[in-house]
């Protein structure tokens, strides 16, 4: 099941099937002949193994390597500007042996590995759009971690590129594969909660730098690492040990977008689908602590207002982070009454007839109608059990992507969806950097009467590594 997103193409089933049929890059290079651009799914033959390369060998990507090995696909190459990350990955996945190729430059990887079918990208956010673009233009299927891009404009450009490409994409919001996320969509769209007014999402402070300026001084770059290449399209700054790499980069605007960048594609995923939310008409910030620096605010509440549409009432999507502010008492009391305390992270969909607790990754599905004393798992709730299943279930997010490549089927979180979620979340970054509320035109990516927002929607990249 998909959703109709603003600006997306509407394809009939036959067109969609053709659009997701597998193609291999070597077939594109041979396209000067009369051979069709899109090959039938049996191009892989009886072997049905994909050749997959991995770019950005930090902690997040290791699970995807493991998934490919479990599914018996071929792990062809590891790529990272820090050779220490590659070495650690090879040590972790000893079964790949010496056969896995090692690269420090994604461009050389894409150019030299002619047998590749697909790539997995788990670099810092500022590298997502350039590498995704290069891979798609080379005819490679792409799985990219969230958020899909570093800016609103990059997300729009990548969505537009995918509409004209013939590759299969999947955004790394793994909760999409959860049966509970899919059940939550079914319940909300069946009208169980009635009209929905608010979606409340909360998260405490992260461990990366927030509300601070960059430290003074410079440290020795790890042996073999190309720091200039790591900075890539973003401005170069002095290397500082334990401040950016590994794992601390997300708090810095040059490389990531803090808490909202980290979780918009997770926590907004289910409600955007279930309520068919387009672009917010207004984006607000409140309860802000320590903003206006090079790193994400120490605390902030982002509120995205969606106008009424197609019989749906207006909806507020509210993201509380940093612990300075939390959802209203009636929400917290309902949570405490069931779970004994307020979980460290959470998400509640608030409707006229009741509430649904989906969790930060939308991988839970607890229902509490207005007359219920507590939340109940959907499988044990009498009213929820009356609603039929309409969305297919899958074995896993990564496997859904590889199966789609092999079988010519759909993924549930293609870049069209992942890009839309990213655009919503990163419009909140534009407001936060401006430290102003803004009336937002998502179609044109502009804030009314705030021309200074334009430079935050787009960005100027350094081009020497692109």
Chart the SSEs and their pairings.
Layout: H1 13-20, H2 25-29, E1 51-55, H3 62-70, E2 74-79, H4 83-92, E3 101-103, H5 106-112, E4 118-121, H6 128-137, E5 141-145, H7 152-163, E6 169-172, H8 179-189, E7 196-203, H9 227-231, H10 258-267, H11 269-275, E8 282-289, E9 299-306, E10 315-321, H12 329-339, E11 346-351, E12 354-357, E13 366-369, E14 376-377, H13 397-407, H14 415-434, E15 438-441, E16 446-447, H15 454-457
Parallel strand pairs: 1-2, 1-4, 2-3, 4-5, 5-6, 7-10
Antiparallel strand pairs: 7-11, 8-9, 8-15, 9-10, 11-12, 12-13, 13-14, 15-16
Structure characterization notes:
The structure is a single chain. This protein is an alpha/beta fold and 466 residues long. It has a domain of 181 residues: Rossmann fold, CATH 3.40.50.720. Helices cover 30% and strands 17% of the residues. Strands 14-13-12-11-7-10-9-8-15-16 form a ten-stranded mixed beta sheet, with helices on both faces. Strand 9 and strand 10 form a beta hairpin. The longest helix is centred in the C-terminal third of the chain and has 20 residues. The chain starts with 12 loop residues before the first helix and ends in a 9-residue tail after the last helix. The relative contact order is 0.16.
The major pleated sheet works out as: 10 strands, mixed
Strand order in the sheet with the most strands: 14-13-12-11-7-10-9-8-15-16
Can you count the helices? 15
- According to DSSP, the number of beta strands is 16
Bin the strand percentage: 15-25%
The termini sit apart by: 35 Å
Low-confidence stretches: 7-42
CATH superfamily of the domain at 13-176 and 398-414: NAD(P)-binding Rossmann-like Domain
Name the structural class.
alpha/beta
Mean pLDDT: 91
What is the CATH-assigned architecture of the domain at 13-176 and 398-414?
A: 3-Layer(aba) Sandwich
- Radius of gyration, taken over Cα atoms and rounded to an integer in Å: 22 Å
**Relative helix content:** 25-40%
The rough form would be described as globular
- Text of the CATH class of the domain at 13-176 and 398-414: Alpha Beta
CATH topology of the domain at 13-176 and 398-414: Rossmann fold
């Amino acid at each position: 099941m998909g959703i109709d997103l603003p600006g997306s193409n509407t394809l009939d089933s036959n067109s969609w099937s053709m659009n997701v049929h597998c193609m291999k890059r070597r077939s594109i290079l041979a396209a000067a002949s009369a051979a069709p651009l899109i090959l039938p799914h049996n191009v892989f033959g009886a072997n049905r193994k994909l050749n997959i390369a991995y770019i950005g060998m930090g902690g997040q990507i290791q699970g995807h390597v493991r998934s490919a090995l479990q599914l018996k696909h071929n792990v062809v190459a590891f790529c990272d500007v820090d050779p220490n990350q590659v070495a650690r990955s090879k040590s972790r996945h000893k079964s790949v042996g010496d056969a896995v190729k090692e690269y420090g430059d994604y461009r050389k990887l894409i150019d030299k590995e002619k047998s590749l079918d697909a790539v997995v990208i788990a670099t810092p956010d500022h590298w997502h759009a350039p590498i995704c673009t290069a891979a798609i233009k080379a005819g490679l299927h792409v799985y990219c971690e969230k958020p899909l891009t570093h800016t609103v404009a990059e997300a729009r450009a990548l969505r537009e590129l995918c509409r004209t490409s013939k590759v299969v994409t999947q955004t790394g919001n793994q909760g999409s594969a959860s049966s509970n996320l899919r059940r939550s969509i079914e319940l909300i769209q069946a009208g169980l909660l009635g009209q929905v007014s608010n979606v409340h999402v909360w998260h405490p402070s992260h461990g990366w730098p927030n509300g601070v300026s960059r430290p003074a001084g410079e440290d020795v770059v790890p042996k073999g690492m190309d720091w200039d290449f790591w900075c890539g399209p973003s401005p170069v700054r002095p290397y500082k040990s334990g401040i950016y790499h590994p794992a601390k980069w997300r708090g810095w605007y040059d490389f990531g977008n803090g808490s909202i960048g980290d979780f918009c594609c997770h926590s907004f995923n289910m409600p955007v689908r279930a309520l068919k939310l387009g672009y917010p008409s207004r984006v607000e910030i409140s309860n802000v602590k320590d903003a206006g620096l090079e790193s994400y605010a120490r605390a902030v509440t982002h509120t995205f207002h969606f106008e009424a549409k197609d019989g749906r009432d207006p909806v507020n999507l509210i993201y509380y982070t940093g612990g300075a502010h939390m959802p209203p008492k009636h929400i917290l009391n309902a949570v405490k009454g069931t779970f004994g305390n307020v979980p460290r992270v959470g998400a509640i969909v608030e409707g006229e007839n009741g509430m649904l607790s989906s969790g930060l990754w939308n991988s839970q599905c607890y229902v509490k109608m207005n007359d219920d004393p507590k939340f109940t798992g959907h499988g044990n709730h009498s009213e929820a059990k009356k609603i039929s299943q309409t969305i297919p279930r899958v074995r896993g997010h990564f496997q859904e992507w590889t199966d789609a490549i092999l079988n010519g089927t759909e993924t549930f979180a293609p870049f069209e969806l992942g890009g839309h979620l990213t655009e919503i979340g990163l419009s909140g970054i534009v407001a936060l950097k401006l430290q102003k509320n803004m009336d937002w035109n998502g179609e044109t990516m502009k804030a009314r009467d705030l021309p200074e927002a334009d430079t935050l929607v787009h960005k100027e990249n350094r081009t020497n590594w692109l």
